[in-house]
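Checklist before submission:
- one chain only
- standard amino acids only
- sequence pasted in full

Submission:
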Amino acid sequence: MDLGNRTILITGAAQGLGLGIARRLAGAGARTVLVDCDPVVKDHLADPVFAKSAIALVRDLAEPDAPRDLIREALEKVDSLNGLINCAAWSLHKALAETTIQEFDRLVAINQRAPFFLSQEFARAICDAAPDPCIVNIASVNASVGNANLTGYASTKGALVAMGRAMAVELAARIRVVTISPGAVLTTNTENLIAAGQIVVPALLERFLVKRFITVEEIADLVAFLFGPSAISITGCNWVVDGGLTAQ
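Returned file contents:
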């Protein structure tokens, strides 16, 4: 797949799914703008896959002005954007009764508010000649399936799914909008939760039809497809990649 006509901004690109997606897109020829609150995102520019095509920006998406500033700064360094991936997220594993207002507000700020206003700024910034502009939102299967201690997180991911659907309708004349809701993806964060006992692997996999974790590469390949020429009629939908969890 040749994505040489793409310049794509990816949030949450310092590690995990965001980094894997960025690598896949860069490997297909896309120019990438890597965004994260962790300064380590700049270290990835030394990776040969990013050497000729990437820039990195450090910003906390919980800051109200971050979306406006990020799009403006990106356009100072690249000629134009025609892709946005809202992948950054803050995951809180905590009981409903123990969740604080401050924690809930941070969940909303990063997982819901930032994608909304990044998409707004992206829509304002793209030129009419931009080839097939597309926004991909990374939600979660938790938007569709209830899990204990994830109520706050799930509420923001449910909002992201609904937002993507409505945004696709509103922006239909200019921009495609697609949502992906992954299930259990094996990332460093997942491994940390397993080590902490917050995820019990046998009990988790028992719930799935496909008895294994989803890989970062699988989701990254789907994202690359959605930015490719074979996906120009795909918009307004939520791709659930969950090993069959929601089929039951």
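Reviewer check: Residues 101-125 form the longest helix (25 residues).
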